[in-house]
Design brief:
275 residues, alpha/beta, five-stranded parallel beta sheet, 13 helices
Length: 275
């Protein structure tokens, strides 16, 4: 099997990317089959080796048709790992880890494995072993999502990244303001990807090209029949006003070669207009 890795800023469309890639002929894309919390390694280099061994085990299990651990035990395909409905003002995770079995896969298949923060944290040693593609998204949409989901990033933490990045861990441990921690996390992902010089794809380009921007980044043949639409979500005006303040106060950390302050303001204007 030829294995590729997929990483991205959390809530940037990596689950959708897996769905797109599973439509590519002779390709299988897995949703977080690795469990970094169970890794014994303390350094990013040892973790990359541990990940390599785990991935090789997954490859063999797929070829043999044996059960393997998967981020969603119920099915290969997943629309969204987070519920649309809110409980206690937050959207809860609905995907449950467990064993998944598939029919035996061809040795000639392409395998894509998606892990967000974990792959980002060990991206330098990992890219020596596997091709890696990263997905980014407008920080306005990312931050809105982070503020609404019951995940560590909602509280300004990213455990799989903190474990292997002392600077990230130190900043998040000492910064008292959640919004500033979130802005730092967003910036950390951008820096990890740009410093590693891996292919980076914008979520918005994936949507406007019906997935072709993504498949091109991997070098796969695109499924021309695929049609994508941006999911429209409505937000309370007070939430948008609060986020606008966050963007203004953290514009240096949230700006990047992929999204300027103008891009962020334009996105906010669009969301305000939908009220």
């Amino acid at each position: 099997m030829q294995t590729y890795l997929l990483t991205g800023i959390p809530r940037s469309g990596t689950t959708l990317a897996c769905k797109i890639l599973n439509d590519v002929a002779n390709t299988i894309a897995l949703h977080e089959p690795l469990n970094p919390g169970g890794f014994k390694s303390n350094s990013r280099f040892d973790a990359a080796l541990e990940a390599y061994k785990s991935i090789k085990d997954i490859e063999q299990r797929l070829i043999n048709g044996e059960a393997f651990e998967h981020g969603n035990k119920d099915a290969l395909l997943l629309d969204n790992p987070i519920s649309v409905a809110q409980t206690d003002d937050l959207r809860k995770a609905v995907a449950k880890r467990g064993l998944l079995s598939l029919p035996p896969q061809s040795k000639d298949s392409a395998l894509v494995i998606k892990q967000n923060a974990f792959f980002a944290s060990i991206i330098e040693p990992l890219k020596q072993r596997f091709p890696i593609v990263a997905i980014v998204r407008n920080p306005v949409d990312v931050m809105l999502s982070w503020r609404s989901v019951d995940l560590p990033v909602n509280r300004g933490h990213v455990p799989a990244g903190e474990k292997y990045d002392a600077q990230l861990r130190s900043f998040l441990a000492t910064e008292p303001v959640v919004a500033k921690r979130q802005a730092y996390i967003y910036n950390w992902f951008i820096r990890q990807y740009t410093n590693a010089n891996v292919p980076i794809v914008r979520y918005e380009d994936i949507i406007t090209t019906n997935g072709k921007a993504l498949t091109d980044a991997f070098g796969f043949t695109h499924c021309e029949s695929l049609k994508l639409e941006n999911v429209k979500r409505e937000y309370a005006e007070a939430e948008l006003i609060a986020l606008q303040k966050v963007v203004s106060e953290n514009k240096l950390m949230l700006s990047s070669p992929f999204y300027s302050l103008t891009d962020m303001q334009r996105r906010l204007d669009t969301l305000f207009a939908q009220q």
